[in-house]
Specification:
Helix content: 40-55%
Radius of gyration: 16 Å
Length: 112
């Protein structure tokens, strides 16, 4: 669910570049070890590029601090949305925490 949320909200995130297969070469990575040995069901690795993007809003541009900050803010928004979607009816997030979602979306981390 988190990758799908990010694909809808974060312009630097590309669902088409995601791989959820455990390849032999990835068996010693943290996400696979955490999944296998500790039992964390949803363990992800998020990668970035220093060379530039070949798709989306940032096609042909090099990634800088502003774009990384924007991705971090969108990641936090994604976690809030995921928590809201997966919370039971008995557990309510404080409204002030949910207001942070809109503040992050409208924050200065937006890239123009």
């Amino acid at each position: 669910a988190l990758p799908k949320i990010l694909s809808q909200t974060a312009p630097a995130f590309c669902m088409g570049s995601c791989s959820f297969v455990v390849e032999k070469s990835k068996e010693s990575t943290a996400r696979v070890v955490v999944w296998r040995e500790i039992g964390v069901q949803r363990s992800y690795t998020m990668e970035s590029t220093l060379c530039g993007c070949d798709q989306g809003k940032y096609k042909g541009l090099q990634i800088g601090t502003r774009e990384l900050e924007e991705m971090g803010a969108k990641f936090c928004v994604g976690l809030l949305r995921l928590k809201r979607m997966s919370s039971s009816l008995e557990y309510n997030l404080p409204s002030s925490l949910l207001d942070i979602e809109n503040e992050l979306i409208e924050s200065s981390c937006k890239v123009t």
